[in-house]
Amino acid sequence: MTARLISILIMSAAAVACGSGGAAQDEPAASGEFPPMGVKTITLALKPIAQTSEFVATVRSLRSTTIQPQVEGFVTRIFVRSGDRVRAGQPLVQIDPDKQAAAVNSLESSRAAREADVAFTKQQLQRMQTLLEAGAVSRLELEQAEAAIKTAEAQLAAIDAQIRGNRVELQYYRVTAPTAGVVGDITIRVGDRVDQAKEITTIDDSSGLEAYIAVPLEEASRLKLGLPVELVDRDGTVTAKNQVTFIAPRADDATQSVLVKSLLRSAPASVRVLQYVRARIVWSTEQGLAVPIVAVSRVSGAYFCFVAEPQQNGFVAKQKPIQVGEVLGEEYVIRAGLKPGERVIVSGVQKLGDGTPVKPEA
Known about the structure:
By secondary structure, the protein is an alpha+beta fold.
């Protein structure tokens, strides 16, 4: 009995010793801390920030011509295709000229008869002058012969004028380009009947383009000639810079806006007439702050970012509410909430919490 009791006491002491050893091994893990999280930061500094407003603009040509025929008839031939570049005077469309050519030929035939009348009346006048000198006719008959030749000459002149007019009109049956440029959409086909009201196509000269911008009345008071106008692509990248060259003196009563024009001395090669483009008017440039979009998070409609704040043993992430403005490229303009010199965290913000230890990296 005594041996058994001694054995139990020895086993109990061994168990207590093992339990104490396990607790001693687990204690450092329980009291240890996670290492600081490595993050990338940027140090805020004032820089020029453009105060802008963005609008949808329409590109128009300063030298855009609508081609309409000056005569009626059936189209027999089309010499160009949409998108062709043409020179001034180059043929575009041929309208059947047979009827007009026949009218010219008829007038020319009538002219031969009028010339014969003039020649005959001249002979009559000479005969009357000879007879008058011989006393065989009266002065009245001579005056009648003189009137007859004037009438014949007037009729000849009239038919000459008709022939010239019909020849000019005959030229209209071949429609030519009034200016150089690029042919637009051709709305007719061979065999179609056209008249003076029918639009055949357009010719646009891309060397003279303007951006038409409708600026709302609430912003019209800020307009002035010479303001920078930037064309931007779908990614917000500026593709061309120009200036305001025209401000309408009146507002459009239908849209309650003011028409602004910008002559595109600089424009991307891809810009086309009547194309819609994004145009940004730069009102002014002021010193301000901006942070990358990736550094900003949005929670319940509010915007936040993390800054690395120094502590005794390193840095911690501090979440700050901010007010953002417009987007410039890949940055938010900061209206409030940050100040120059602060180190904004720009990586791993989804894994951060307020007070998380961080280690800023270069």
